[in-house]
Amino acid sequence: MAYESPMLYEQPTDTQHVQCIIDELQLAAHQCLTQGYERPADPVNHMQAKNAMQTKGANTTAVFDVIMQELGMLKTLTTQALLKQRADSGALQPLQKAVSLWKKRPGVKALFDFGVLDAKSHCSLHTANIRRSQLLEDEAKAVCGLTKDRFPKAKPAILMQLLQQLHSLQEDVVFQADMSHCMQAAASQSRWTLDNFAYGSTSFHGWLSIFQHPMVKPHVLTALSNGKDFQVWGSSIGWLVFYAALTYGLRAVGYELLSCHVDTAQQLASYFQVPGVSFHAKDMLKSDLGDTSIVMLASFCWDRALHKQAAAKLSKELMRGSIVVDYSAQLDAYFQQIAKVQIPVSWNDQQTMYVYFKP
Fold this sequence. Notes:
Strand order of the largest sheet: 3-2-1-4-5-7-6
Shape: elongated
Mean pLDDT: 81
């Protein structure tokens, strides 16, 4: 049975022209969300959105609201046409006319003016598809390199299937919308700002280059031989936790405040039968570090105050000889920096990663 997440949305098949527009809208929605801007509490109407779209940046939230509304409208038109096609083979022909009328809606016109949609529907997504294909090719090369002689506990087949599912999931617009609402709910109930819940992903081949670094790999092998845990603070939908478990056979633990992310990670772990992983919808500052010797902080968007509290906890509770991997250099005052590696991540092709040692 194929894995089916309640968040996954199967797009309706349609003519290439309409599918192109749907893809462009979904890509634009993803770009809006990955910038981490807070959506307004009140719905934005078309005229407000058109005015808001005159400048980029903080008004990205207005763009997202209009994209979601118009994407829903377009998908409704497409679904209706497909249902009619079952009874009438020519039912898809009027769809182009319906789409032409849809394009005249104020919100859609604003999206064209803003540059979200190509006026000639040439599908700007083509470039993104090329980049995504290259990314998956690079991931596949890295996974194929997990040979038994070098990585005796690796499970490359499961890892590759998981990578494909994770990449597909993060591009799904329904997943993105649910995540946006989950982020806002968590921020409203937390003492931390919305930026702390921003979503991003790290490539497997990039992650592997960190842990195969000559200054880092010995610590990984020591953790394995001593039966110590690998923890991720801000584990999202499980990427980094799955990497550690399926590459080295480490016991891997994820802490994440967004319950929707934890649910997704647990579903994936269960379906793909990933051994040695656990996910907790719990504040990382309350985590137990007693059996942990490697910690990875998904800290790129954290407030300085949050990062400071995390550093203080690690400095006090993490056992000597442990390592910490961070997306910033803010731990320089607490630990000894032993490595610095640049890797591709979803928001930056050359993100500098810092590895610290606790003497």
